[in-house]
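Hey, can you fold this one?
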Amino acid sequence: MKSLLKITIISLLIAGLTNPSTSSELNLPDLGGQGRSGLTAAEEYRTGASVLRNIRRAGLVVDDPILTDYLNEIGYRLLSHQDHGETKFTFFLVNDKAINAFALPGGFIGINYGLFTQTDTESELASVFAHEIAHVTQRHYARAFDVGPTSSLPILAALIAAIVLGGNNNNVASAALATVAASQASRQINFTRHNEQEADRIGIQVLSDSGFNPERMATFFEKLERESRTYGLNIPEFLRTHPVSISRISDAKGRARHLPKTKDKDSLSYLLMRQRIVALASHDKRSNLTNYEQALKDKQGQELVAIRYGYVLSLLRLQRPNKARQQIDILIKAYPIRIAFLLAQAEVEIEAKKPERAIRIYQHALKLYPNNESILHDYVQLLVKQKQYPLALTTLNVFLKKSPRNPVFYKYLAKTLAALNQPAESHEALAEYYYQIGQFHQAVDQITIALKTSKNNFYSTSRLEAKLKIIQEETPAPAH
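Sure. Predicted structure:
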């Protein structure tokens, strides 16, 4: 997967360099610079959104709605105690077991699932988010990418994507930078000591204000620093870009001591989502199932609840719906309105070839939680699969006005509209899907088809032409 990312990023950079309008005047970002940011707020957002599309294009975004909902829940709990102006933050999970987290211009914050599973408490996880949020609100990332007026947005976005996801894969970031200009290659974003201290100071205060244990930022960084000694040269990327020193850890501990004491209190959601990652990321399904069966005998309280949930997911991966139903019924009886359990219950019925039962479960869940993206995703997906297109269209038309985080909704919309004999609208929806996952040329193709189909509709044509212009501005020129 990482090699695919390398090919994708470098191809984008090469394409950008061969564009006559940019190649002769390319200005590299001043990585780690302290000067005034060359990006406006709108440009920051466009750059961050474009990076996210590049990461999606490489297949590295975990588009799991319930996990995404949880990450955004934690993020916005912290943001409620932080002045973030008009920045709209987006939190997403990266499909990588390496220990890393990063923020992008415009408020996009990614966390590898490998870092998530390294945390032992919810406060440790929140501490990483709080630190990254502080980098954004203090515009450390924006200043790090101080660019000139002639810089190409596609090149900058591809460059940042290469840097933040370079990891330990033979320095993907270095390879990308060398492609741009060999004489100016740099391995990764390096924040200054002042940047790190400022992010720690603000992050610890936000942790405390949000009800998390402020001591956990220091203890988590301390744990990573201790474990990094076993990695040799291949230390976690998070420590490459956020170097931890003894003095920095001591300073964080000292700041936390002056804040109100808060006990660690992990939410059930944290325990469930941690087990969800463990269950779904495991490559050895049978061994994982055996581990869960043993853990069911050893755990109690909320940990037992989370283990049972992971066990259900593991049973589903092995296509054992009847046994999974026995376990999910226990959870539903104890927690009848917990979204994770309702979704798992529906999934059990789908696996058991009883889709009508699953539809009723989703409809019940939507009465409890209208417009919940996790429920709507699974519900619409099933409606389309069952060819219940009118109901799917009605549901999607209402929901898409709220700008969902997951691009796949537009794919469902395209299939639904095509089935209902609305070709122009179907191609337009598919164009939006391709655009959001970074497949710009496919998006242009779909809009071109839509324009031909709707050429007699002035309003539709105007909308499509405007969208086409936006996509073309972000599309690297083809290599010659």
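DSSP finds 25 helices and three strands in the chain. Let me know if you want another pass with a different chain boundary.
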